[in-house]
Amino acid sequence: MINAVRFSHTPDITVVNQRQFELHYGLYKNYVNSINKLTCEIEHASEDIKEEANTTNGLFRSLKRGETYALNGVILHELYFRNMGGTTSAPKEQLKAALEERFGSVDKWREDFVATAKASRGWTILVYDERGKCLRNILLDGHDEGMVAFAHPLLVLDMYEHAYFFQYGSNRGAYIEAFMQNIHWDIVAQRMNYYGV
Ligand SMILES: [Fe+2]
C-alpha cells in the first residue's frame, strides 16, 4: 500500500503558483490510488485471467501496463515536486564537476536539458547512467516510455501540459525558464550521493 506524500515546501515554490500545484497534486494522488488498486487487482487476478494473457488484448495485459504506468507516475511526480524550489542558483562541488566532465560546462548541460524539455511530451530527466558511468539528459514521452535501464533520476522536469497550462498557458518556454532558475540543487546532490556518483 502506497500513501501519497505531502510536500511541505510547496508554498515556497516559485516555479508554479499554489493553484497550479494543487491541480497537479490532485493528479499525483490519482496515480497513488491507481497503483494501489492495480496492485490489489493483480494480486487477486484469477487463473482464468492469467491463462488468457496475450500480447494484444485481455485484462491481464491491461493490468500490467497500468501497473508500470501508474507506479512511474507516482515516483516521477515525487521526484519532480521535491527538486523544485531551491535557494542556490547553481550546482556545487562534485555535481558541478560531473556536469562539466560530461557536457563541457554547466551552461552546455543547461542548453541540452532545456532543448530536451522543449522536445518532450512528458518528462525530461537528468540521470546517472550507472552502466556508462556518466550523466545523460533523457526524454520520456510517457511515464513508462523511454526510461533507460540502470539510469537513476537526479533531476526531473514534468513537461506534460497539466504541469504548467493553468498558469503559463502555452508558454512552455516561460515554465522551463522558471524551473531552471529554481532547481533544488541540494536535493539533486543528495540523489547523486545516494547513487554513489
Ligand atoms: Fe504531472
Brief synopsis:
53% of the residues lie in helices and 11% in strands.
Low-pLDDT windows of residues: none
User: How much of the residues is beta strand, in percent?
Assistant: 5-15%
User: C-alpha Rg, in Å?
Assistant: 18 Å
Please outline the major beta sheet: 3 strands, antiparallel
**Mean pLDDT, nearest integer?**
93
Helix content: 40-55%
Could you tell me the number of beta strands?
3
- Write down the CATH topology of the largest domain: minor pseudopilin epsh fold
What does this molecule look like?
With 197 residues, the protein is mainly α. The protein has 2 domains: 66 residues; 102 residues, minor pseudopilin epsh fold (3-Layer(bab) Sandwich), CATH 3.55.40.20. 53% of the residues lie in helices and 11% in strands. It contains 8 helices and 3 strands, in the order αααααβββααα. The protein has a 3-stranded antiparallel sheet with strand order 2-1-3. A hairpin with a 4-residue loop joins β1 and β2. The longest helix has 26 residues. The two termini are 31 Å apart. The model has no long low-confidence stretch (mean pLDDT 93). The structure holds fe (ii) ion. Fe (ii) ion binds next to α1.
Please outline the helices and strands.
Layout: H1 18-43, H2 47-51, H3 59-82, H4 93-103, H5 106-119, E1 123-129, E2 134-140, E3 151-158, H6 165-168, H7 172-181, H8 185-194
Bound molecules: fe (ii) ion (FE2).
